[in-house]
Amino acid sequence: MGENDYEGTWTLSDGEKLTLRHIAPADAAREQAFVHGLSPESSYLRFHGTIKDLGKKELKEFTEPDARNAVAMVVLRSGEKGEEEIGVARYVIDPDRANCEFAIVVADSWQKRGIGTRLMNALIRHLQVSGVKQISGSVIKSNAAMRSFMKQMDFEEIDDPDDQSTLLVTKHLDSSER
């Protein structure tokens, strides 16, 4: 992983400049607009149900993560109306501090451009000093693109014993990633 996988600005092959940084309370309106702008399919695949708007409590949790137990990163692009959120990834560390659960979503029109890879690498980088031994999440079985992405990122998948439509994906973090 190069240092450009983490916070900062980079340029896509088409010249578009993007910024990766920690989410902040001031991002609440951007986060709400991002979730509202997801296609029904992307919303379903991210939230395992269709959500058009975040409630006040969810919005606060999403934009003000507990610094000891969670990290949330956003990818922004500068547009005519200011900064627009085009991707977000987060993790929350389990109480035993051995595992964390992640979530990641990139706006429909920005998918397949390396943004998810940058977000996931940033999460893994932040886990370096946490002592967390693995990162995991759940993926809907029919989500072929996410399953391919998880395989590319060296995650293992197993059937979720509690939900036949879902897979559990896990990546063990070894010393070479810390």
Q: Could you give a quick summary of the protein structure above?
A:
With 178 residues, this protein is of the alpha+beta class. 26% of the residues lie in helices and 35% in strands. It has 5 helices and 8 strands; from the N terminus they run ββαααβββαβαββ.
Structure, described:
There is one protein chain. The longest helix has 12 residues, at 115-126. It is built from 5 helices and 8 strands; from the N terminus they run E-E-H-H-H-E-E-E-H-E-H-E-E. With 178 residues, the protein is an alpha+beta fold.
What's the helix and strand layout?
Elements: E1 8-11, E2 17-22, H1 28-37, H2 40-47, H3 56-63, E3 70-79, E4 82-93, E5 99-106, H4 115-126, E6 134-140, H5 144-152, E7 156-160, E8 163-172
Parallel strand pairs: 5-6
Antiparallel strand pairs: 1-2, 2-3, 3-4, 4-5, 6-8, 7-8
Rg estimate, integer Å: 16 Å
**How many distinct beta strands?**
8
Secondary-structure-based class equals: alpha+beta
State the share of residues found in helices, binned by percent: 25-40%
Total helix count?
Answer: 5
Inertia-based shape: globular
Largest sheet: 8 strands, mixed
- Residue-averaged pLDDT: 87
Q: How would you write the strand order of the largest sheet?
A: 1-2-3-4-5-6-8-7
End-to-end Cα distance:
11 Å
Note the run of SSEs as H and E: EEHHHEEEHEHEE
Could you list the spans in which at least 5 consecutive residues all have pLDDT below 50?
1-5
Strand residue content: 25-35%
List keywords for this structure.
eight-stranded mixed sheet; disordered N terminus; globular; 178 residues; alpha+beta
